[in-house]
Amino acid sequence: MTTTGKAVLTCVDGSIYTDSVCQHAAWASQRLSAPVHLIHVSTPPLSYDGPADYSGSLRVGEMSTLLEKLTEVDEARGKLDHRKGELIVEHARAVLGAAGSPPREVLHRRGSLVETLAEQEAAAQLIVLGKRGEHADFATLHLGANLERVVRAAHVPLLVAARAFSGIEHFAIAYDGGPSSEKALAYIVSSPLLRGLVCHLIMVGQDSAERRGELASVADKLTKHGFEVKTHLQMGRPNEVIAAYCEANAISLLVMGAYGHSRIRTFVIGSTTSAMIRSCHIPVLLFR
To answer: Of 7, 35, 68, 205, whose Cβ has the fewest other Cβ atoms within 10 Å?
Structure first.
């Protein structure tokens, strides 16, 4: 399916990741020659419906006054949330503009991010968002709830931004031969996103002639498409092997599958994919 003219959907929420998300999106848009569509979705505040049974504790007049005041509070909170969203969007516009990729379209609404992306995805070739949301607990390395939901729902590649943006020169593929890995490989050789960058091909597992042959075959395919490729095969826990290799070799971006039968591609809390996203200090490009 062609991606010509399709946008880089850039999701911002006012968290500490906002600037990085915008800078990663600008980098991707320029590599892909694609427009940026900026999206901010705020969660609706919980409405006050009142308890079902007051057991006669409040008179009708008192109840009416209380509900009126609560309605006023909800309206005021809604206005403040909307203004907060406007400020987030204004800031994101400025960051994207300074990075050379001002947004072509801006969507600011209240609702569900996952539902919004489902509506917008047909016009997208890439989604960019932060690892954690506005209210994430950094002490526990908690992944943003929106990230988990978006990864499960998205049908286009998802670029998970690191906390800070830096130049991307070396990327690594966590390869295991499964469908997600093959999808990532097909994208890499056909898309301009990573063209011209040094590629590191990592496989986790027991050293064998079969695995060496598989790595060599994939490396040969990448080489024929103009990539400089380095291969690495090592036994161990996938998240530990991959993280250590990325750190030792100054990897700028990790490419991996988000779902599948293997330990690398299973995406549940505590899985290798989640562990990699939580602990990695570099952006992760996910395919499922």
So the answer is: 68
Query: Cβ distance 19 to 95 under 8 Å?
Result: yes
At 145, which CATH number? 3.40.50.12370
Q: What does the alpha-carbon distance between residue 272 and residue 38 come to, in Å, rounded to a whole number?
A: 30
**Domain end (from 108, 142, 163):** 163
Q: What is the pLDDT along the chain (288 residues), one digit of tens a residue?
A: 456 689 999 999 988 999 999 999 999 999 999 999 999 998 765 544 444 454 455 566 777 787 778 877 877 777 888 889 899 999 999 999 999 999 999 999 989 999 999 999 999 999 999 986 544 444 444 455 677 788 888 899 999 999 899 989 999 999 988 888 899 999 999 999 999 999 999 999 999 999 999 999 999 999 999 999 999 999 998 888 998 999 999 999 999 987 544 444 444 334 666 777 777 789 999 997
Q: What is the C-alpha separation between 116 and 122, in angstroms, rounded?
A: 11
Give the global pTM. Answer: 0.83
CB atoms within 10 A of CB 279: 12
Same-domain status, 152 and 250: no
Tell me which residue range forms the domain holding 258.
Answer: 166-288
